[in-house]
Each structure stands twice: as C-alpha cells, then as structure tokens.
Task: structure prediction
Amino acid sequence: MDKNYSDSDLDLEINIDENPPTTIYEDYTTTYNCTLETINPQAPDAPRPKRPRGRKAKKSQIEIDTLQPFIRGSGYPKKEYVRCKIIRGQKRAIRHALKNNIPTKTIHKVNKENEDEINAWDVFAKHTIDNSEFFKEISKTEKGPKTDGAARRDSNCISCDIQKSFNDVFCAQYFNNDLVVENYKFYLDVIFSYMVPENLINRFDFSCCKLGNSKHSSVCLLKWENLRNYLKEGMLKDLMWNPENFIPVEAVEILDFYEIIDE
Result:
C-alpha cells in the first residue's frame, strides 16, 4: 500500500540517510575495587553534618543535686547563670567597697537595719581594702570574658585566647588565687547573712518552690543552705579538680599580688 509523503517527511528521510545516528555502546568490562569503607553513604548534594563546637561541660552530681531542685522559668538555673551572677556581683561589690559605698541594690544589697548583713559587709570590705591594689585590678569589667566590658576594650587588642563566657576554663583561672577565693567566701557571707527564702529569691532571681511568700517550708531552707555550701566548696572543687580547665590562657591569667604592686 502506497503512502502519501509530504515534502517535510521526504526532507527528514533524506537527512537521516545522509547523517545516520551514531550508536553509543557502554563499556561494562572495566572493574573497580570498592569496599564499604570507600563508599560515601551520603547523597552528592546532601549537606554535611555539623560538628559540635567546643567542649560539652560535664555536670557533677553535687551540681545536679544542688541546682535542679530550684525553679527558674520553665526549668532550673544552670551553673553558668549562677557563676556569672556571682562573679559579676563580687567584682561589683569590690568596686563598692573600694569607694566606701554600702550597696543597697543588686544581689549583695545590704540592709542597714540588719546587723548580720552589716557585719558581713564590714568583713568583706576590710579584706578588699586591705588588698586594694590587687582587687582594683581584678574588679575591672574588661578583665572578664568577652561578654563583659566590651565597650571598654580596644577591639584591635582583643586576644583570641580570651574566653567568650563564664565557662569552666575562665572560672578556674579566676579562682586560681587564694586572695580571690578568700574574698569570694566573704562575699557569699554577705549574700547569705539573712537566710530567709524570700530574701534569697529576690537576690538570685530564681525560686525554691512554686508557693512563695510565707508558705516556705523547712525543705526550702535546706535548698538554700545546700546552694550556699555548693557555692563555697562544691563549685570550687569541681573547677579545680578538672585538669582540662587549666589550659594556659594568658589573657585571663590573674597576676600575682606582688607583680601588680611592682608595676
């Protein structure tokens, strides 16, 4: 049966005859030595998993037992929050003492009508003033991590070795001095001189229970006593017993008292 071809069909047949298509044959004879170790299980365009940054801080049992019974927001206060509050507070209290000021605000506020608070402050202030040259240097905000005193730093002189926060390394360096530790314990005596739960809630900005006001029990008081003991002893032991916290960090090294005097 004859077919009727159009002009375009005839042109196509002529073109195919003159330029026959090339057949491409794949070579399946080549072999490759592949093992499971050399095969990448990820898809070519799949994003690479991010490696965790920095060291994950380990929690000691005493830290867990002390802080988890408290309430802050929807959780409990983390040790970084507590350490930041305490170290910043100590530095601020040192500046108050060197100026002969009795603080009426912040975590170490002193009620002039409370004899225990006044006595505790006098002991702290005397220790600070007796070592005024040393503590004048220590109390500078730019002596803290990068999160502190940023406005007073020369951006061209910030060492990459300065810790970014109140992490274990910074805190271990900070407390690696007998004068600082002794002054710190006097400072805690100021904060805890009036051991009433509601007073301590206002100072620390976290609570020992959900009831509040005058409904605190002996359990609440025990929580605050445990916190005081942890801050005085347990926290320092956690920092000092871990050798990883003593990486040489020139930027946060606390100078010896006599080195500062000689400058």
